[in-house]
Amino acid sequence: MSCWTARTVLLVTFVVLLIHQDSQQNVASASPTPVIGFEDYSEEKKGPVPVNESEIGELVNVSRLKEDLQKGMDQLKSDYMKHLSLRSASGSIENLQVDFEGETYTLQEIAQIGRKGPQLIVVNLSSFPTVMKDVLKALNDSGMGLNPQQDGTTIFIPVPKVTKEYRESLAKNAKTLFQKFKDHSRDIQNKYIREVKKKEKEVSSDLAHSVQQQIHSMAELYVSEGEKVMITKQHELLGKD
User: Fold this and answer.
1) Are 120 and 91 in contact (CB under 8 A)?
2) Residue 240: its pLDDT value, please?
3) What CATH number should be reported for the domain whose range is 55-84+163-238?
4) pLDDT by residue (tens digit) across 55-94?
5) 107, 137, 183, 201: which has the highest count of C-beta atoms within 10 A?
6) Closest by alpha carbon to 139, among 82, 69, 64?
7) d(Cα 122, Cα 143) in Å, to the nearest integer?
8) Closest listed residue to residue 179, CA positions, set 215, 230, 220
9) How far apart are CA 134 and CA 121, in angstroms?
């Protein structure tokens, strides 16, 4: 082989190597591996929308929104304290709320409450017999796992023993009350989103869309906090650390 031929072969080989290296770099650059920081940005986009109260306040009353959401949270905590306890049920029953003809009363306001032994509570409605149906409903819906028995104008309520099954029943009721709170929070969220939608023609679409997302995020913060309260209460009822 001549000197020129050898040089030509070497030159061609070098060019082929360069082309191969370049193609490998193009493949690498076309791969789905993100650049540094891109993945974090994507995760951020998937997370909750940051809440800017000043921006929300351009379209709805933020103080009223927060107050409405907080009322639901306060009611959840109050229900847990009053109705889901391993202690004697008599104190909870005395303060049980009864709805009657558009008004709300505590049971002790409309009935005489006593005991017949350590395991039986007696509710006497002889002075207000027309409220019997509503009292029974309030007792059955209380979440305390009670089994009231009516005898004329008197209701007998056996006090449940603190068994494993009773604990599990109370823990289940804690979830039911949380779901009620969650539905309430969704209703509040939707109420304020409807307010925003009514103003969509008056403001930019970007602002209207952003505020709706932020209202949703704010409601989710309360729901998340309520779920933590529920889990803590369930652990208390089930005797978990």
Assistant:
1) no
2) 78
3) 1.10.132.20
4) 999 999 999 999 999 999 999 998 888 778 766 455 578 8
5) 107
6) 82
7) 19
8) 230
9) 18
Token pair in block for residue 187:
């209703």
Each domain of the chain, given as residue ranges in start order, spans 55-84+163-238, 87-158
- In degrees and rounded to multiples of 5, residue 171 shows phi and psi of -65, -40
User: Is the pLDDT score of 178 beyond 70?
Assistant: yes
Which residue reads 């208390």 in tokens? 236
Q: What's the predicted TM-score (pTM) here?
A: 0.59
Token pair of 207 as six digits: 């602002």
- The answer to whether 157 and 92 have CB atoms below 8 angstroms apart is no
Task: Please report, for residues 17, 97, 176, the alpha-carbon distance to residue 183 in angstroms, rounded to integers and kept in the order given.
Answer: 66, 21, 11
Give backbone dihedrals phi and psi of 96, rounded to 5 degrees, phi first: -60, 130
Q: Is 142 exposed, middle or buried (0-12, 13-18, 19+ CB in 10 A)?
A: buried
- Asked if residues 55 and 68 have their Cβ atoms less than 8 Å apart, the reply is no
Secondary structure of residue 129 in the 3-state scheme: helix
CA nearest to 66, candidates 225, 201, 234: 225
Return the amino acid letter for 58: E
Q: How far is CA 173 from its chain centroid?
A: 15
Query: Does residue 53 contact residue 62 with C-beta atoms inside 8 Å?
Result: yes
8: pLDDT strictly greater than 70? no
**Residue 123: burial class (beta carbons within 10 Å; 0-12, 13-18, 19+):** buried
Count the helix, strand and coil residues of the chain and give each as a percent rounded to the nearest 5: 65, 10, 25
Beta-strand (E) ranges in 116-217?
Answer: 120-124, 149-151, 154-158
